[in-house]
Amino acid sequence: MIKFFLKTYGCQANEADSAAISIYLTGLNCKEVYSETEADLIIVNTCAIREKAEEKFFSYLGMLNKKIKVNKPYLKTIVIGCIATYKKDEIYKRFDNVNFVFGAKEDLNNLKVVLSDFIVELESIKNIYHSENSKRDTGFLNLGGFKTAPKELKRSLINIMTGCNNYCSYCIVPFTKGREKSFSAFQILQKIEQDIKAGAKEVTLLGQNVNSYKDPESGTGFFELLESVAKIEGEFWVRFLSPHPKDMTKEVLQVMARYPEKLCAYVHHPLQSGSNKILQAMNRTYTVEQFLEQIDWMKTILPEITITTDIIVAFPGETNQNFEQTMRVIEAVRFDGIFPFIYSARKYTKALSLKDNCSKDEKIKRINELIKKQQDITFEQNSLKMGKVLRVLVEKRMANGRLLARTQGNIRVFLDGDDSLIGSFVHVKVEKTRRSDLLGVLV
User: Fold this and answer.
1) In the chain, what are the helix, strand and coil shares in percent, each to the nearest 5?
2) 356-404 pLDDT, tens digit each
3) What pTM was estimated for this model as a whole?
4) Fold observed for domain 3-132
5) Which CATH superfamily is domain 155-383 in?
């Protein structure tokens, strides 16, 4: 039996792609393993959204070459995803251990053909290799940090679309993944039903801009798809990532309000900057005023909603005044959490030609100020939940011995309990609130 290992970088869309590959290979009678040293086939799913992710990927390939393949010469390595789209030649040139590179815009059927061919080849080579070396120890290295699959919550990650039409000036996604393409609603619903029957308790609908989804057959939009998902039988939660403010509608929020047991009252709504000048330079195509109006919709239609956002600090041209405008929006909205990033210049993006007017020290100062402000707000928001009874979904056992669960709003809750609770909905009473999580006791 051929064993395969999947290494995934980046967003949950990549996680969904990796899950689909895992299902395909399992259907070819292969077995997924959770350590590189056990694998006959390693597939690396890459992310190009930030330079650091690219650096980690190249470092990882170097590690595979030095520490794995030297002890298992028949090992096959495949690189897929966004970096594979525009650095294919460089990957082949730098890493002789890479057998195939498959870009994010290429036809998935071609990858399936390559995978099936590799499996046939590996089965033959592996048998020959082990028959010749059965009497000696191959000396596989034990690399620290690679874990076997733990018992944890079953999730369904569903790509409802791929690509992007927005061309934000800092983003490489339209280049690596191409134009927007929505998948069949029938197939999406069919896959979710299968996953729910198989035990999934959480469904996440994924896309670069989910609220521009259009079923290619019927033309129905995202809020209609969301309602169809909510009508599927079973006990499960539904989330989606990420909407774009330019396409957010009240209909999406109204559907969420109609199905509160299924559709989580949680929206990750990327602001990126609180300055209209910077939003225009980013080509975000909405204003701060429009964004704040949408926040009002959310809090009116879904009073218990949890809202998080993305913020890019020190985008080219951002002045201290522009940064202070962002800080004022943070204070006005009082997000439950933010994902802050220092601007990272990426090849092929329009922003690459813009002059970086901010020193490294100033960038660090701004992001630290932003993080400190949000930490205080998050703690205050979490404190409002003190003493409340919340419905949570238990995910897994943590290293500290406690169970990790999450609220509808994706807030982490730690509690004591038996492993039998993993994958179950339970109610907890909040006994302590902290900056980034809650402590609760089973009710």
Assistant:
1) 40, 20, 35
2) 999 999 999 999 999 999 999 999 999 999 999 999 999 999 988 999 9
3) 0.80
4) Rossmann fold (3.40.50)
5) tm_1862 like domain (3.80.30.20)
